[in-house]
Amino acid sequence: MSDEALLDAVSAAARPVAKARRITSATQIFEALRAEIVASRLPPGTPLQDRMLIERFGVSRTPVREALIRLAEIGLVDVRPQAGTFVSRVPVNAIPEAVLIRKALEGITVEKAAERATELGLRGVDATIRRQKQAAAADDVDAFHEADEAFHAAIAEVAGHPGIWSLLALVKVQMDRARRLTLPVLGRMEQVIAEHQTIRACLAANDAAGAKAAMTVHLSAVIPDVDALKGRYPTYFV
Questions:
Q1: Please, are residues 189 and 136 in contact by the beta-carbon 8 Å criterion?
Q2: Average pLDDT score over residue span 205-234
């Protein structure tokens, strides 16, 4: 299967995911809790009680239960009969697979983006880099992560396959949980910005090979050192 055919197949598979993401109370609760779990503001083992969530979001029990079911489906919460629902620990064995999938799909995507890129089309990419610089200057880790996600989503837009990022966002969620624990490392945000600027330069030059190589370097750098993290956060991983 050619790279173009693979992109088309993955995009087709991602379309139902994108269509299902209509804005509902359940979706809003799901997105809010997912962000807090990934950022470790809700660390592993935190109980998620229906009553507490109903009061917090001002909704009925139904959207809360729907959101928790969706979180369970992507491995972010554990539902324990007779005990309750808890934020899950990070499964170490899910991370290498997510890395392989991300490298493969983003490598192809950035090549296609480089072939299609124009200065006008890169405005979205440029906007995300500006957001990252602002977040780094303010030492705002959450805003930096959001802008980082937006950078990769913008590349998928330039490539003409935005659904790929929607699919990858689900595939890499456990990798993101581990990676977020590394962002406070001194100088890492500045390094990420430099890597993004290198990728952007390759896109502007329509250098597909260079863009793929730069993306490979970037993704290799963001792979979390799980062994080191397990030593620092022994209760976070399983």
A1: yes
A2: 90
d(CA 119, CA 107): 21
Are 32 and 82 a contacting pair, CB within 8 Å? no
The string of pLDDT tens digits covering residues 44-94 is 999 999 999 999 999 999 999 999 999 999 999 999 988 899 999 999 888
N- to C-terminal Cα separation, the chain: 36
- Please write the tens of the pLDDT for every residue from 112-124: 999 999 999 999 9
**How would residue 138 be classed by pLDDT, with cut points 50, 70 and 90?**
very high
Dihedral-angle region of residue 230 (phi above 0 means left; psi in -120 to 50 means alpha; beta otherwise): alpha
Contacts for 52 with CB less than 8 Å, ≥ 6 apart: none
Q: What is the per-residue burial (b if ≥16 Cβ within 10 Å, else e) of 91-130? A: eeebbeebbebbbebbbbbbbbbbeebeeebbeebeebbe
Beta carbons of 117 and 160 less than 8 angstroms apart: no
- The DSSP code for 160 is T
Question: Rounded CA gap, 74 and 125, in Å?
Answer: 28
Sign of CA dihedral 131, 132, 137, 142: positive
Q: Which three-class secondary structure state does DSSP give residue 120?
A: coil
Query: In which band, very low, low, confident or very high, does the pLDDT at 210 lie, cut at 50, 70 and 90?
Result: very high
Distance, CA of 202 to CA of 96 (rounded, Å): 27
∠ CA 18-214-38, nearest 5°, is 45
Q: Tokens 């969706």 belong to which residue? A: 70
